[in-house]
Amino acid sequence: MRIIDDQDYHFEEWLTPEQIAADVRQVADRISADYRGMEPLFVVVLNGAFVFAADLIRAVQDLRCEVTFIRVSSYYGMASTGRLEFIVPLQQTVENRDVIIVEDVVDTGLTIHQLKAHLRGMGAASIRVASMLFKPNKLEFGDAKPDYIGHEITDEFVIGYGLDIDGFDRNLDAIYKVK
Ligand code: IMP
Ligand code: MG
What we know:
Blueprint: E1 3-6, E2 9-15, H1 17-34, E3 41-46, H2 50-58, E4 66-76, E5 82-88, E6 98-106, H3 110-121, E7 126-134, E8 148-152, E9 158-159, E10 175-178
Helix pairs in contact: 1-2
Bound molecules: inosinic acid and magnesium ion.
């Protein structure tokens, strides 16, 4: 069992690189089947999703697709609805495109909820979400439940495989749970 001590936290390995690869394979196979004959546009949510996205798009070899990136930051406002800040806005038109949002983890769902509304407003033909991780107990925005999920997780904080703690540990090849 690999252990990581970062800042004041203690992390233990939860998903090995082999388990992650199997999760990615499962998601990729479902996407390949669902989008057969289509030309989807993957919208990767930076920063965290870059590792998952790199594996996922190379696991859908039979799919003709495009990949673009967006960087967002979510804040809670005073009401229950939040506000999404586009740090790196979408560089590509999504009008009439079948969009697959790629996320590292869906937690409250605020980010995905807002991003979906944004993409819908820009005329996307369809929008689905592929997320490496999903925390169902934390979900506050029903429409943010991912269509493709690598692994469900309870409420714990995780790092590795693109997920960070204060910007660090994205490079770890396994996913670690806080103890
Ligand atoms: P949401 O908008 O509440 O769904 O939050 C999603 C974002 O919060 C993700 O894209 C991550 O950047 C971050 N996040 C949520 N849970 C974790 C975690 O366990 N580890 C690292 N980042 C997390
Ligand atoms: Mg993220």
